[in-house]
Design goal:
heterotetramer; A: 406 residues; alpha/beta; Rossmann fold; five-stranded parallel beta sheet; two-stranded antiparallel sheet; B: 338 residues; seven-stranded mixed beta sheet; five-stranded mixed beta sheet; 12 helices; globular; binds thiamine diphosphate; binds magnesium ion
């Protein structure tokens, strides 16, 4: 007997269609959508507004990065439906565990552009108040944040709170051991957590078929005994319906859920990536036609929920934000070198105090040398790096650094 | 039992002979009684009470909510502990043996150590990772490693190791109360070492070294399992007319420069003893920083008496690997004594 | 809408019955067994012989460990069907990647008792010739060996060889990130590898329901797009049929398979464990009635394939092995302390040569001191540990060490 | 293309200006042409050619069988490489940035480093793990770590780091040819450093240190990214009448005691420079062992000029963290010069 015979446990059916409420062409889906129904027009209009604003922000930041204003920026262009639906499904007290990719989720949750971008501009590793926004730092080590989300959700459950945690993950990140451990801990502990995997079909240059061999990422949920949903990630209506239900399920003691949003990364991985090495313009074009904003726009116009006046107001909001973002990213960066020592430990350490004093003295000496140098411009004994420093230094925010990757 | 439940405050108990394992157990128990946000989880820490019985009885007392067996995944254990700490809990987790902390390395180094700095002090991670470490218990491969050099080389971590039951209790309570993440390294060969203790006992602050035995000729620096070895060496040395001052470091990171430096300036000679391999081991930092700071007080180079630069051997060979009093004395004998 | 509604992706059916060819009572299963058929009587008799011999060995080593002859020994009592079926399904050129639990698999593959037990007795970390037997060292760090198996299998595929790798894993080990990565790499690379998970329902003290929330471990295969089989691990016929088919499938380019054998660990985790803390005698008794050897015996007797003469010959083989094992475990351990430096690097290192010379000198000095001491017995300056040593030292093999765990 | 395919032997090429990245690329290419058992895999090393383009063009030349993008999992990468090596291949794998080697820590420390010893020399693991390390490229968090102390503290590993294109080529070829597992640390800030090279070039053996610049007053010990800094310091120092001998360690484990010791005995003063934090950093081993072996030749304590004991900072702050020539000179100025 050969194992190629189907067994009851393994599903060998080809990948199902992703769950969808509004199709590529902007029409409401009429056939069965797994019991999910279209959100009301007001909700959809709100999501539309957020997506448009988020995209404008994303495009603006990419442009600023190309100008060298930021060290790096991983764009979410094309993934707005996943990002905005995930955030919209959360209550104010819930926690979000985002990655480097998810700046627009932060924006949508109310974090100020300069606070989001502080890390990408190189000011500090995380620039916003995590407790104010209930957003963990944007995680770079892949899949690690999923475990933090499970831990926080479990703490919420132990404390009998109603706080839910939502973790954002990429398709590539699901290959990491930490993703597995997070899914398993969540299921065993029945933690109130939702995992939203944005399957944008690439991990930098590596396409999905070199990442996994299963039909869908949602299929992975079976191995943990939790519900898994395979959703059109460019359909914000479907994403919102599924993630909201998952959040509600978590909140009411139903345990974790895995939601896969099938989408596409329209931009390069980051500014230092060159996608022409691993995909064609044609590949990208296919997905441009499945744009999450356009299809919702078509639908909203068709039902009369979106007119020129509303469009104009949204565009104005987006342009204002873009202008504000430009403005704050051209403002000089303020950093205090001595702050380097301030947050490493809660308990003071004598050795760190010594190092702080050392840097402080060095900065003072450089400042003095610089003064001297400007008095006697031909002085050649000034070490090369002793340009003007002070304990709170102003930089031009343009950077010539290269090779930075998220 | 919920997290909010009130337990009787921890009171004084009559003196009793306690092993280090029992002292650690009492420290966790008292911390959990005093602070409802302390939770305990890991592999086999529940009904079994841990493979060394350090968590014995805690599951029975505090129940599933506060003491639980987790799935078998160390990165998962540390990663979820981080999430719990963000939400205000104080997790105490166990890595069953220190070679089994390695799957958690990324969570420890990239998150546990860096979260506070990353968030400009907004997020504290008051987590204790208990790691039974070192050898001399006849353990098969992977059960006798000494991993302290990995943790001490990582800014953001506090790394401590008790050498006796009193410190085990006092330091573990302080570690659990600390707002910094603490790698708490338990010398497994000393789990069965006994002392007469009246709990709750409070010894020197966790971040300080102590002079365990005064001497005038040599400062012998040890921590965890090698403290007993160092004391035995000092005892033996008396017969040879050598007066050894023994320092128990207790805190590996931070290093107590003041206490150790003062001793060194008195004796002008020092040696550090640990089980881990020498190359790149923690002893290198001890020797380097003491020399930097006290060079002109030194009569001889600081010596390192350590394991060899090889993987930890099998049970039948570990006696050749471990620093012994006679190996230490022989090393001290290589100095020119003028 | 609530997520409690069933979705097409998540199977919420209760756990299926494990695949079985001979039932608890020793009767051939007549209803559908997933297309698998009972191996012939000769094959079954061979497997029976190996199981009986392996059990005798296991019981003997456990007894020797209780007497302190070994540092530790993780018994596979009750798991003989999984262990022996796995080994029997391999061709001589195939590779086995076992754990600490799988000593009887090594025995069955022809490794000598003293070579298997060298590590548990504390002579060296691995005591057999891995290339001669094509058996990797028994892995202790859980699930790590599964990746080695995938790598070896992939190398075999790259070289266009027909070598298959089989990795043994525990139920607890499947929670580790490495298990996930191994399953995924195997599926993506379509490596000729078979994963046999011995679900003995405990990871030391932790029962399965605290380890995972899915129906079966075999279900996990779905998330990797590989076949998964849920098999009665105490039915050697079923285990052998499934693993043989999986090995054949791997060999002929069909990729990886996950086989779960549902079984029970009858003994303590190791000699230093105390199972009364986490399970009752009654729990164990239930599984004693499902003994893998007894049921096969009943079946073989019922079809006339096993009679007293054959039984006697098997018993004799088993007793001979037990006697030989006792004999070699009471022989003194031979270790050479200077060998400690010989295998750390392929390229010689001056610093290690120095350390070797140091130990050599120390041993010589101790030997000299010991001679001196026996000449002048009251000498009190001899350091405490300077007992007789020589560069090739003989120990009594009894050990008083405690607290050793695999 | 199969593993057995024959490629033209590697011949001499005319001199050309090569970056370190290009030299590394050529080393892998030549090794793969010479030895059909060499295979390359990791994250994005295929069609993309690696995020630093070190593997550029290799996928096109050698095809999917020998060059492949793996699933995104570092433990998986190292673990499968181990299995391949057992079967006779020589895998070269990449960790995309060194903080992303941490998920592979257990496979590296518990298996890669120990397999040969465990099996009494029967199983060799001729694996090269390439790790782009250190900072000064404006990288965001986790992209500028220096993890060498973790690897050098692990017996069984060989740890090397080139500082220039010629060594990059020669040492990587030697690493790939080595029967020991090699952690090959590539200083990412030097990927774009150029040199005129006629390949194949063979420099000093991989396990040796070299004196890059002779001097009489101070031995300045550097490796990887700080070699350029040390050379710049020596240049600057001439103006101040200070003669600095610069040593490029090249091999971190093993440490070339002979070469470095000889220099130190000549100058009687030494300092070691690295980017990693000081506490428990690799410089501690350098200082400790040189002091042990050369104490009575020392006129002053060995200094460590290193990063601070903090996590690697953000781009806008890294200039304050990194050792600079003037910081090194200032440190040397703290010695009493008599
Ligand atoms: C542990 C780890 N390994 C490698 C990297 C480098 N890296 C950054 S992003 C990335 C690809 C991630 O792909 P995916 O998870 O699909 O997310 P996406 O970038 O597509 O949103 C890689 C390999 C990392 N950040 N962390
Ligand atoms: C990475 C790692 N973590 C922890 C341990 C300690 N440990 C040894 S065996 C064991 C339980 C393993 O359970 P399972 O995988 O079900 O195998 P079994 O022992 O039941 O055969 C544990 C936790 C280990 N060996 N490796
Ligand atoms: Mg992706
Ligand atoms: Mg088990």
């Amino acid at each position: 007997m050969s194992l190629n015979v189907e067994t009851p446990i393994v599903s060998t059916a080809s990948a199902p269609q992703p769950l969808r409420l509004i199709d590529d062409t902007g029409h409401a889906v009429t056939d069965d959508a797994g019991g999910f129904t279209l959100p009301d027009a007001d909700t959809l209009l709100g999501l539309y507004r957020q997506m448009v604003v988020a995209r404008r922000f994303d495009v603006q930041v990419t442009a600023l990065t190309r100008q060298g204003r930021l060290a790096t920026y991983p764009s979410a262009l094309g993934q707005e439906a996943c990002e905005i639906a995930a955030v919209a499904s959360l209550a104010p007290g819930d926690w979000l565990f985002p990655t480097y990719r998810d700046s627009i989720a932060l924006l949508t949750r109310g974090v100020k552009p300069e606070d989001i971008l502080a890390s990408f501009r190189g000011e500090w590793h995380s620039g916003y108040d995590q407790y104010e926004h209930r957003i963990a730092p944007q995680a770079t080590p892949l899949a690690t944040q999923a475990l933090h989300a499970v831990g926080l959700a479990t703490a919420s459950k132990l404390k009998r709170d109603s706080t839910v945690a939502l973790a954002l993950l990429g398709d590539g990140a699901t290959s990491e051991g930490d993703a597995h451990e997070a899914f398993n801990f969540a299921a065993v502990w029945q933690a109130p957590v939702v995992f939203v995997v944005q399957n944008n079909q690439f991990a930098i240059s590596v396409p999905l078929d070199k990442q996994m061999h299963c039909r869908t990422i949602a299929d992975k949920a079976i191995g943990y005994g939790m519900p898994g949903f395979y959703v059109d990630g460019n359909d914000v209506a479907a994403m919102y319906a599924v993630t909201s239900a998952a959040v509600e399920r978590a909140r009411t003691g139903g345990g974790p859920t895995l939601v896969e949003g099938l989408t596409y990364r329209m931009e390069a991985h980051t500014n230092s990536d060159d996608p022409s090495r691993y995909r064609t313009a044609g590949d990208v074009e296919v997905w441009r036609r499945r744009d999450p904003i356009e299809r919702l726009e078509t639908y909203l116009v068709s039902i009369g929920a979106l007119d020129d006046r509303v469009q104009a107001s949204i565009r104005e909001e987006a342009e204002d934000l873009a202008a504000a973002t430009r403005e704050c990213m051209t403002r000089p960066v303020q950093v205090d070198p001595l702050e380097l020592f301030d947050h490493v430990y809660a308990s003071p350490r004598p050795a760190l105090a010594e190092q702080r004093a050392f840097l402080s003295a060095e900065l003072a000496e450089h400042a003095a040398l610089a003064d001297q140098a400007s008095a006697t411009p031909s002085s050649s004994t000034t070490p090369p790096s002793s340009t003007t420093h002070s304990s709170s230094t102003t930089h031009s925010s343009s950077t010539t650094h290269s090779g930075a990757h998220a | 039992m919920t997290l909010q439940s009130m337990a009787p405050p921890v009171g004084a108990r009559p003196p009793a002979a306690l092993t280090m394992a029992a002292a650690l157990n009492a420290a966790i128990q008292d911390s959990m009684r005093d602070d409802p946000t302390v939770v305990l989880f890991g592999e086999d820490v529940g009904p079994l009470g841990g493979v060394f019985r350090v968590t014995d009885g805690l599951y029975a007392e505090f129940g599933e909510t506060r003491v639980s067996d987790s799935p078998l995944a160390e990165s998962g254990i540390v990663g979820t502990a981080i999430g719990m700490a963000i939400y205000g809990l104080r997790p105490v987790v166990e890595m069953q043996f220190d070679a089994f902390s390695y799957p958690a390395f990324e969570q420890i180094v990239s998150h546990l150590a860096k979260m506070r700095n990353r968030t400009r002090g907004r997020i504290s991670l008051p987590i204790v990772i208990r790691i039974p470490y070192a050898g001399d218990i006849g353990g098969v491969e992977h059960h006798s490693d000494s991993s302290e050099a990995y943790w001490t080389a990582t800014p953001g971590l506090t790394v401590v190791s008790p050498s006796n039951p009193a410190d085990a209790y006092s330091m573990l309570r302080e570690a659990i109360a600390s707002d910094d993440p603490v790698i708490f390294m338990e010398p497994k060969s000393r789990y069965w070492m006994k002392a007469e203790l009246a709990l709750p006992v409070q010894t020197a602050p966790m971040n300080t070294a102590v002079v365990l035995r005064e001497g005038t000729d040599v400062t012998l620096i040890a921590y965890g399992p090698t403290v007993k070895t160092a004391l035995a060496t000092a005892e033996l040395a008396t017969a040879e007319g050598l007066s050894i001052e023994v320092i128990d470091l207790r805190s590996l990171s931070p290093f107590d420069d003041a206490t150790v430096g003062a001793s060194l300036r008195k004796t002008s000679r020092a040696a550090v003893v640990h089980e881990a391999a020498q190359f790149g081991g923690y002893g290198a930092e001890v020797a380097a920083r003491l020399t930097e700071r006290n060079f002109f007080h030194l009569a001889a180079p600081i010596l390192r008496i350590t394991g060899f630069d090889i993987p930890y051997p099998s049970p039948k060979l570990e006696e050749y690997f471990l620093p012994t009093p006679d190996r230490i004395l022989a090393a001290l004998g290589t100095w020119e004594w003028s």
